[in-house]
């Protein structure tokens, strides 16, 4: 690791691997939360056994080393689950713009949206796994490194304010003037607090908005095809999406037909007395 930003990028990979165990946990096929937690609980159990056998208190640096080893084990587990390498997960790899199946392809799209539109940076919270070095300034430097703007321009957080004006600030202006949107969130999804989880009846009627939260669900649970082993709440979420889209299409067809009838009124024949009788008087 040659530069400060490269070192921070590695710290980001480590923290993100742990976060993804929660974000992409999917019962019963992906019990990733339990598996990652096991990496730490097993280490704790081993530490207790060592205490009992030695009969003395281990030094603080030994405990920290145990935690680092547990973290490394968890990161290796998640990278294997995601079929990715440490290099694949590195934000600095997103400069690769080749067409192909490389793991960074979708991440580059998401990162561009974050840089150019709405932020949503995963900065460090106090005393969390995510390093305090992963801050807003680092993300801004990543944006400028990955997506160089013309004429020496730089990305800034001003774009977030502009996006909120356009779409409606979640906390201030609700959902703006948006129509026909169904919000689906997982109860355990770390992103859920940033989404719309409740819609007032007034907005439902006026703008055709609705929302549903998947009990014990995680990120993008509703994106996958129907499965025999999926929880009932996930099946319900998918059904609600289908019903919402069906309703929007039916409403669109009805409004289009109404518009056609206004533009093309039915042809009717009108006759005047002169056209029937010519110039003769009755």
Automatic annotation (TrEMBL):
Record key words, sorted: Carboxypeptidase, Glycoprotein, Hydrolase, Protease, Signal
Keyword Protease: yes
One of the record's GO molecular function terms: serine-type carboxypeptidase activity
A biological-process GO annotation: proteolysis
Gene3D superfamilies documented for this protein: alpha/beta hydrolase (3.40.50.1820)
One Pfam family here: Peptidase_S28
Biased composition (Polar residues): 269-282
Entry annotated with the keyword Hydrolase: yes
Location of region: Disordered: 257-282
EC number(s) on file: 3.4.16.2
InterPro entries linked: AB_hydrolase_fold (IPR029058), Peptidase_S28 (IPR008758)
Family named by the database record: Belongs to the peptidase S28 family.
Protein name (database record): Serine carboxypeptidase s28 protein
